[in-house]
Amino acid sequence: MNALLDVVLVAGLLALALHVARARDDQGAIVGFIAFGFLLGLGWVRLASIDVALTEAAIGGGVTGLLLLRVEAHTRDSSAPDRTARPITIAAAAVLCIAVTAGLAFVILNLPSPPPTQAPAAAAALDATGLENPVTAVLLAYRALDTLLEKVVLILALVGVWSLAPDHLWGGAPELRPAVVPEPLSYLARVLPPFGVLIAVYMFWVGADAPGGTFQAGTILAAMWLLVMLAGLRAAPDTRRVTLRLLLIVGPAVFLAVGFLGFAMAGGFLAYPAGAAKPIILGIEAALTLSIAVTLGMLVSGPSKRAPTS
Amino acid sequence: MTGFVDAFTVLAVGSGAIFFLAGTLGLLRFPDTLSRLHALSKADNLGLGLIVIGLLPHATSVSAGLKLACVWLLAQLSAATASQLIAGVARNRRPRA
Amino acid sequence: MPDFLTGAAVFILVVTGLGLFRVLRSQVAVERMMAVQLLGTGGAAVILLLGTATASDALTDVALLLMLLSAFSCAAFTLGQSSSATATERAEEKP
């Protein structure tokens, strides 16, 4: 029965991918892509990677869709004529995609069986961290440096987006509210965020011992914040506001501070003192969740569209 | 006792699956957008509700059962607002199209 | 029991997939937005069934997240749709 489920899932994913590639208009392609994200989440569930399934559902099903839609609306307004790609561009894209797919297929089919794995080592060292979810242990203990750099990259991406604002709007607020807000949307923006915040806090808390964690929690918070801004219940903040900028960097800053303290307390960058690993990791995660939420929310909101209020 | 619980689950999950089938049939066969929307939001939600009821006896703890119920509550909220939003867009368009 | 639940999951996945393709291939742009809603509900049902079949509680969290975000995406889509609708109507009125 499980084999049948996998066959159906893979067939659905392939058909959906083809549909997205062949879609005639951008909005149709974006809807297909969101659906693809949801289905891919199911695929990760079948592969028993529930952490990844949660991230895929949150990022692929939620925030990316809004980001793509805003990009689509923006390009539609500014460059209406001549947006169809030339045949040679399409052919080049097709060749590149096929090359990537073939390369991936070659690598995966040639993996030794059983494939090399660090999983037993990761599970064996789990006790020292005080955590029970090996994924969180990898992200915030064994490979904490990678995670730190990732969060810094996220902020760099935001700086890139902000720098698209023209000079006279620099420091101003992005505009998300549409001209007309349908009533069901303002209802949703009032009712859904309390649920969302509760689920985000739960996701963050449970992440130490079960699938979940900072990134999922941060993404949910970002989605709820975006919903409130979309419905116009709260305007987006000025990008030059000090509290906003402090919130953006608090996660990486706490992470870095803990990293340097590691020299003094445990003899190395990002080393945690024995026995105190879990509270330290939870502290870092709490700060990171806030920063991720604010960064993703501002990333999707885009560059400033209004002059700063003085 | 387990036999009784299992029979209950089979009944509830089975009828839930049938409602999903009904939703898709409505989606495939109904003549216009609003009735298709109606088929989707009503039948699928009832299906999900029945499946949640069928799975409740198998929940490992009270909190797991509460979470199951929460999924359904969220589905109610989400389906109600989403179909209002979609129907609003459909209605704004129709007179002019 | 796990076999029955997985079977029900396969059935719902197939049925949802059929509906999904009907909706995605629709000529009416509004109908395509139903895809998110359809897959949110169907996907949640499949995940809950699989979660009970394999006795993994964490899957309920995935279903919870899926439901929460399908409402969010659907809202985002209707917004994009209404603004593009007015845009195309304006374009249609011009000539």
Automatic annotation (TrEMBL), chain A:
Membrane topology recorded in Swiss-Prot or TrEMBL: Multi-pass membrane protein
Origin superkingdom: Bacteria
Domain Na+/H+ antiporter MnhB subunit-related protein residue range list: 185-301
Transmembrane segments: 47-69, 90-109, 148-166, 187-208, 214-234, 246-274, 280-300
Keywords carried by this UniProt record: Cell membrane, Membrane, Transmembrane, Transmembrane helix
Domain MrpA C-terminal/MbhD: 12-75
Family as reported in the entry's similarity comment: Belongs to the CPA3 antiporters (TC 2.A.63) subunit B family.
Protein name per the record: Multisubunit sodium/proton antiporter, MrpB subunit
Organism whose genome encodes this protein: Bosea lathyri
Phylogenetic lineage: Bacteria, Pseudomonadati, Pseudomonadota, Alphaproteobacteria, Hyphomicrobiales
Automatic annotation (TrEMBL), chain B:
PANTHER family: ANTIPORTER SUBUNIT MNHG2-RELATED
GO MF annotations, alphabetized: sodium:proton antiporter activity
InterPro entries: PhaG_MnhG_YufB
Signal peptide: none
Record keywords, A-Z: Membrane, Transmembrane, Transmembrane helix
Ranges that cross the membrane: 6-28, 72-90
Protein name as catalogued: Multisubunit sodium/proton antiporter, MrpG subunit
Source organism superkingdom: Bacteria
Pfam families with a match to the protein in the record: PhaG_MnhG_YufB
TrEMBL record, chain C:
Domain of life: Bacteria
InterPro entries noted in UniProt: MrpF/PhaF-like
Chief place where the protein resides: membrane
Record keyword Transcription regulation present: no
Residues passing through the membrane, by range: 6-24, 36-56, 62-80
Subcellular location: Cell membrane
Alphabetical keyword list: Cell membrane, Membrane, Transmembrane, Transmembrane helix
Protein known as: Multisubunit sodium/proton antiporter, MrpF subunit
Any one GO molecular-function label of the UniProt entry: monoatomic ion transmembrane transporter activity
Recorded GO CC terms: plasma membrane
Any Pfam family the entry gives: MrpF_PhaF
Topology class, membrane: Multi-pass membrane protein
